[in-house]
Design goal:
Chain lengths: 233, 335
């Protein structure tokens, strides 16, 4: 048997590409296994798998790298504090995405002075108790919310949009922007306040139209937390 | 609802291009709780394909670790430390040193014995089982039945990407930004070295074989006489180690078929019964006995799908036009 071929399995199905939809796929398998052997290692794997896409998702809402990264880190911190991996039996993915979306939304409400709903570890934990399944309408509404925000930014006049992205998303200082775009700091401020008022309008409109029924009935009572608007400095 | 169509619809929805009718359809689909998890899975997949920017995960992880350490230190400081047991033992005078010494020896021994278990993590499949999973670096692996893959528990993807395979596995290796090499070690001195590509490695008692379906790989082979040989493979190339320990190269017109076992699909082209027996032993832990030695010269041709040993045996018996009897782990073939 000189040209012995140990591998006997050969495909015949013309539709069955080898890279077809896997039946047995569980991308969290390694993470789960690591958690069961060494929680810290599992935690690091979890972080490295989801940090980037979660930041990207959060940035769609808050349009700022630093805020997005802070929010995602908060979610991971609370994950460790509450040892969430011991309580989750569905998927980490679902937990992380809904926690990040929720925090992003609550941040926006605070920042834009809409009635503030504090999200802290407690609410993260409450979601766990209910199996972190949201109501279907909420899943859609979170998605539609970031779309509406993206749309608002997209419809800003080009220069205004540029200034907004440089300042808020990239975190550049007013002076840097002034140098780069050759405009006066006054103009920058005008652009920024225009962008922010558009955003505020978008967020308010969503609330008034009853499109955003995002606050859950079993959530913490709305306290009169005074929120700080920090945007225009 | 077709799953693929649903996924496409959701991707449109994530991009803000879904029509109101599609939205209604999604809302209905979401009534099933398991679909809500799928929604998040696809959102994650979509997000990965449309990243807004690349956040710096290393810095973020360092900062997060520091915050956790700080948090845990504060937590530990507020708790009263438990009274150490060793203090009560101190009562016995010199024996304390004996205890300390034996603890050290035991710890040393334990660490030595456990070293492999601490430093490495192993994924194993049972007979008849295939399993697909993702490695920490994002590469995708499917393990065939009765196989195992060992990899370092710490720092996989940071310093190196090295795994040890027993059995058979299909790899889809992700190319990293730093062009880091991915190495698969087998038991016959044959190592596969790649940057990012798709290939199948077979390493069973009966032989070792590598088939490349995409990209390029380098084989490093060191035979019993310790002579080294390097070989570069192109898509479709197959290399196996023969009984004499020499490398044999061939070319397959359809390399993708080498990983068809992932879908439990088999095709035999004049395959001798002896190889069927080998496959039954490797994948299902079944020993084959031939009542009539002449059966060994028969060959099997045909294609089919079999999800377990029973289905496999039934089809093979039909193709060979023979009967079989199974008793525990032994299968007897007869006319």
């Amino acid at each position: 048997m000189a040209d012995k071929q140990p591998n006997l399995a050969v495909s015949t199905n013309p539709f069955g590409k080898a890279s077809g939809d896997p039946v047995l796929m569980d991308p969290e398998f390694m993470i789960r296994q690591a958690f069961s052997e060494d929680a810290r290692r599992g935690y690091e794997l979890l972080f490295r798998r989801y940090y980037r896409p979660l930041c990207s998702q959060a940035a769609r809402f808050v349009h700022s790298r630093t805020i997005a990264e802070d929010l995602v880190s908060e979610v991971f911190l609370s994950f460790w504090k509450n040892q969430v991996h011991l309580q989750i039996n569905t998927s980490f993915q679902g937990y992380l995405y809904s926690a990040v979306r929720k925090r992003s939304y609550s941040h926006l409400r605070q920042e834009f002075n809409l009635d503030a709903v504090p999200v802290d570890d407690q609410t993260d934990r409450e979601r766990l108790d209910t199996g972190h399944v949201q109501n279907p309408e909420q899943l859609l509404q979170y998605t539609e919310l970031y779309q509406r925000i993206e749309e608002t930014v997209r419809l800003l006049p080009p220069q205004c949009q540029r200034v907004f992205v440089m300042s808020r998303f990239e975190g550049k200082k007013h002076r840097e922007i002034a140098d780069e775009l050759q405009i006066s700091p006054k103009t920058i401020e005008a652009h920024l306040s225009r962008a922010l008022s558009q955003l505020r309008q978008t967020l308010r409109m969503g609330l008034f139209c009853g499109l955003l029924l995002l606050s859950q009935p079993n959530e913490w009572p709305v306290s009169s937390v005074s929120s700080l608007t920090t945007l225009t400095e | 609802m077709n799953k693929v169509t649903m996924k496409e619809t959701l991707f449109e929805h994530f991009s803000g291009r879904a029509t109101p009718l599609q939205r209604t359809m999604i809302a209905e689909w979401l009534q099933q709780p398991e679909n809500q998890l799928t929604y998040m899975t696809w959102l994650d997949e979509w997000e990965r394909q449309h990243l807004q920017y690349l956040a710096d995960e290393d810095t973020a992880f360092t900062q997060l670790s520091a915050r956790i350490a700080e948090m845990e230190q504060q937590g530990a400081a507020t708790e009263t430390p438990p009274t150490p047991i060793i203090r009560r033992l101190g009562f016995f005078g010199p024996s304390r040193w004996l205890i300390a010494a034996s603890v050290t020896v035991l710890l040393g021994l334990g660490t030595y014995l456990l070293r492999n278990r601490i430093m490495f993590t192993v994924v194993k499949t049972a007979y008849g089982e295939t399993r697909r999973f993702t490695l920490p670096d994002g590469s995708d692996v499917t393990l065939n039945a009765h196989s195992s893959l060992r990899l370092p528990r710490f720092g996989f993807g940071d310093k190196s990407r090295t795994v040890w395979l027993t059995g058979e596995a299909a790899f889809s290796v992700r190319h990293t930004a730093t062009h880091q090499r991915f190495i698969v070690h087998t038991h016959r001195g044959l190592d596969v070295e790649v940057l990012g590509t798709e290939f199948n490695v077979y390493d069973r008692p009966g032989g070792t074989k590598v088939v490349l379906s995409k990209g390029a790989i380098q084989l490093n082979y060191r035979n019993a006489a310790k002579t080294e040989q390097k070989l570069r493979l192109k898509p479709g190339d197959a290399v196996s180690v023969n009984a004499a320990g020499r490398l044999e190269q061939s070319h397959l017109p359809e390399p993708a078929v080498s990983t068809a076992w992932r879908e439990h699909r088999f095709v035999f082209k004049r395959t001798p019964v002896s190889e069927i027996a080998e496959l039954l032993r490797d994948n299902y832990n079944l020993d084959v006995v031939l009542k009539d030695p002449e059966l060994a010269n028969r060959t099997v041709s045909g294609s089919f799908q079999a999800d377990n040993a029973d289905e496999f045996l039934q089809v093979v018996a039909e193709l060979l036009e023979i009967n079989y009897r199974q008793k525990e782990n032994t299968v007897t073939f007869f006319e």
